[in-house]
Amino acid sequence: MNDFKAMILRWNWVILDTETTGFPPQGEVIQLATLDSHGHCEFDVLIKPQDRIPPDATRIHGITNEMVADAPAFPNVHIALYQYLKGKDLIVYNLDFDLTVLANTMQRYANNPMLKVLDVESAHCAMRWYADVRGDWDDYHGNNRWHKLAVACAQQGVNVKDTHSALGDCKLTRALIMKVFEEDIPPEH
Fold first, then answer.
1. How many domains does the chain have?
2. I need a labelling partner for 63 at 20 to 30 A (CA). Which of 5, 51, 130, 183 fits?
3. pTM of the full predicted structure?
4. pLDDT digits 0-9 by tens, 105-129
5. Among candidate residues 116, 138, 126, the one with its CA nearest the CA of residue 177
6. How would you classify residue 11: left for phi > 0, otherwise alpha for psi between -120 and 50, otherwise beta?
7. In-domain check, residue 187
8. Contact 14, 35 (CB under 8 A)
9. Is residue 186 part of a domain?
């Protein structure tokens, strides 16, 4: 937790979240958002997938095939995202899921030479960090219990709204971080 806290207090971090067509290995990124350490949004974009969005996925996040029909393809968004994240600390609430779906989406465009693995200073899973903060031991898994983002926010008294949109989840993740570290953060942040 001290490494995470030191990273937070450097103020060079960006929260990223995605919404997808489904789970890996078939799932593709269809919405991507970022929020920097000061709460500024650089990306909040729909992305046109190669495959159609299944109705089950639409029921979760509300993104339809019609909404992404004229959206940019992933390589167009990725090039700008790569430049923006270069050298920053990356925070994702469920890091393994989002990075896997990003990698799977990149693989679909493997013949595009512009696609590169994200060049971040470090990557941190806010879900695992919060599990350690909360400290609810799970004997079955042998680690601290992971909590859904909305549950973690509710546990910390963070107003939960706008879940299951990429930007909404970025805002919730930032609010959770700021709440946990509120005594360590100067008021101007």
1. 1
2. 130
3. 0.93
4. 988 887 777 677 777 888 999 999 9
5. 126
6. left
7. no
8. yes
9. no
